[in-house]
Amino acid sequence: QGRPLTKDELAALEELKKTGISYYNYGETKSISWYRMDEKELPEIRKLFARLKGASINNISVSTELASEEWQWICGLPNLKNLRLESLAGISDTDFASLGKSVQLTKLELKAGEKLSPAAFACLAKLGKLTELKFENVTCGAQGIAGIAQIEQLQQLTLNGCSLTDADLKPLSSATAITMLNLSRNPKVTGEFLKGFAKNET
Questions:
Q1: Which residues contact 141 (CB under 8 A, 6 or more apart)?
Q2: Which tens digit of pLDDT belongs to each residue from 131-148?
Q3: Please, what sign has the CA dihedral across residues 61, 66, 67, 71?
């Protein structure tokens, strides 16, 4: 659950509201919602983030592009459990690998990750507590699926419009914890793969 926020951290969050970043505190849920990004404000944002380095923030939703330093800050949050990103356009393969440090994550939702290479998604195998994963228009390929298949506690998996094939999805045959699978808008995935996946339930 983490410690309560200090007065300085609360003051920093109030300052962040002026830059398009909102903070919400609902009991044990402490959330940041980031809905715009202004390059001119980045130096000040980074100073404020430095003051929040040890804060018990566990839920982040970002609807704008992130720079590398902001991504690294998010991945370094020790209590982060839920992460939702609308765009990965400013994130490189090297940056994305830092997601593997977010070992407390239980829910991850990513959209628009076409610029990342499939190899970048290997870090997902380190997210051992993840139970829900949603990808939309994220080209993760066979290498990404192999990483996903190693997440032992993953129960709900959505891969919407990810340009996947039956061959890409073969590693999922070993992911026996999955109880919900959504493969919408992957026209190259056939019913034959789904029949093979269903054998995990027998």
A1: 118, 121, 163, 164, 168
A2: 999 999 999 999 999 999
A3: positive
Measure the CA–CA gap between 142 and 170, rounded to whole angstroms: 8
SS3 of the chain: the string is CCCCCCHHHHHHHHHHHHHCEEEEEECCEEEEEECCCCHHHHHHHHHHHHHCCCCCCCEEEECCCCCHHHHHHHHCCCCCCEEEECCCCCCCHHHHHHHHHCCCCCEEEEECCCCCCHHHHHHHHHCCCCCEEEEECCCCHHHHHHHHHCCCCCCEEEEECCCCECCCCHHHHHCCCCCEEECCCCCECCHHHHHHHHHHHC
- Tell me the per-residue pLDDT of 60-89, one tens digit each, with 9 for 90 and over: 888 888 888 888 888 988 888 999 998 888
Tell me the whole-structure pTM to 2 decimals.
0.83
